[in-house]
Amino acid sequence: MSYDIGDAVTIRTEIRVEGTLTDPVDVDCDLTAPDGTTSTPAVQHISTGVYEVVFTASLPGRWLFRWTANDPDSVEHGHIDVLPNPPPPGRLAPLASITDLEDRLGRTLTDEEAAKAPALLRDASAKIRAFCRQSFDYVTGDVVTLREVGYKLTLPERPVTAVT
Questions:
Q1: Do the strands 2-4 and 74-83 form a parallel or antiparallel pair, or are they unpaired?
Q2: What are the φ/ψ torsions at residue 115 (nearest 5 degrees)?
Q3: pLDDT category of residue 133 using cuts at 50, 70 and 90
Q4: Residue 142 has pLDDT above 90, yes or no
Q5: How many CB atoms lie within 10 A of CB 13?
Q6: Beta-strand relationship, 61-70 and 50-56
């Protein structure tokens, strides 16, 4: 699920021992913002074994969280994505997605890599646009019908991913 800047975000965890909700002695939630700053928001006890934190999404990007419980010991990692508000104009949007990056690497990004990836993709896209001296956008789902001239087909200038 993704959120917009300014949204109140609720993160919830459940502590279970052999399937039964259980209250541990201590529960903490560490939160890492997209800029790398960390905080420990106040944890609210909702019911037996159920805890949550609420915070305001103040920065766009991937927010990482880590729940830690003691007695019984438990650790849970996760993330939420906060979208820029409004989204960047097409000329500034990344030319590739995190999914594209994971496909290229052949693996899922670690939490630390995933937190940095959006900024790195935007930077790389800006360098590509500057080098090519074009302000093209990431295009998906475009279908172009080409007509041959003699026995020659000329492909369009945008990146071509498949020809049928």
A1: parallel
A2: -70, -30
A3: confident
A4: no
A5: 20
A6: unpaired
Output the six-digit token pair for 76.
Answer: 């849970």
Side chain identity at residue 46, one-letter code: I
d(CA 64, CA 143): 38
Query: b vs e for 97-116, b when ≥16 Cβ sit within 10 Å of the residue's Cβ?
Result: ebeebeeeeeeebeeebbbe
pTM of the predicted model as reported, rounded to 2 decimal places: 0.53
Element (H, E) at 111: helix 111-132
Its sign, for the CA torsion 110, 129, 131, 119, is negative
Contact 85, 4 (CB under 8 A): yes
Instruction: Give one DSSP letter per residue of 54-110, joined into a string.
Output: EEE--SSEEEEEEEEEETTTEEEEEEEEEE-SSPPPTTTS-SS-HHHHHHHHTSPPP
